[in-house]
Design a protein that fits this description.
Blueprint: H1 3-31, E1 40-44, E2 48-50, E3 53-62, E4 70-76, E5 82-85, E6 93-102, E7 105-114, E8 117-126, E9 131-136, H2 139-146
Antiparallel strand pairs: 1-3, 2-3, 3-4, 4-5, 6-7, 7-8, 8-9
């Protein structure tokens, strides 16, 4: 046999092994419940009931980029209608703390990041359903305002 023929057989054998390896790796990732190329993931945290509505926090992240997760607060009416509660603070929330139930209502801590920096906000819904937001100076002040310890 000529050496060119042996090289061709070797390359063909290598190509078959690469294809089989890629196929088995993909099947193994699928079997484990994942993906070779991860996409966006959305997690709904356990819901809680306050007043007449159910509420839940939703966290969304993207496994393909180093971008941080984004948080949303969703209110579900008894009729089943869902509302994204942003408390007049649109955009991406980098963190959502709470809920903390107090005698005068329920309070959340919100961290918003944007190109110029970070802002921290408290959002309180009183017993009548009126929302009040207030900006605080730092993360530590945020946890003091909502009456929780710093994580």
């Amino acid at each position: 046999m000529s050496s060119m023929y042996q090289v061709a057989l070797g390359l063909r054998s290598l190509a078959i092994k690469v294809v089989v390896f890629a196929l088995l790796a993909g099947l193994f990732a699928w079997f484990l419940g994942g993906s070779i190329f991860p996409g966006s993931q959305v997690v709904n945290l356990p819901s809680f009931q306050w007043r007449t509505d159910n509420w839940h926090i939703q966290v969304a992240g993207n496994g393909r980029s180093p971008a941080p997760a984004h948080w949303r607060l969703i209110r579900v009416e008894p009729s089943g209608a869902e509302h994204n509660e942003n408390f007049g603070l649109p955009g991406d929330w980098e963190a959502l703390h709470g809920p903390v139930e107090r005698s005068d209502g329920i309070i959340f801590g919100i961290e918003r990041k944007f190109e110029g920096g970070t802002t921290w906000w408290t959002a309180m819904i009183d017993r009548q359903g009126i929302t009040t937001t207030r900006q605080v100076a730092s993360n530590a002040d945020l946890f003091k305002a909502i009456g929780s310890s710093i994580p």
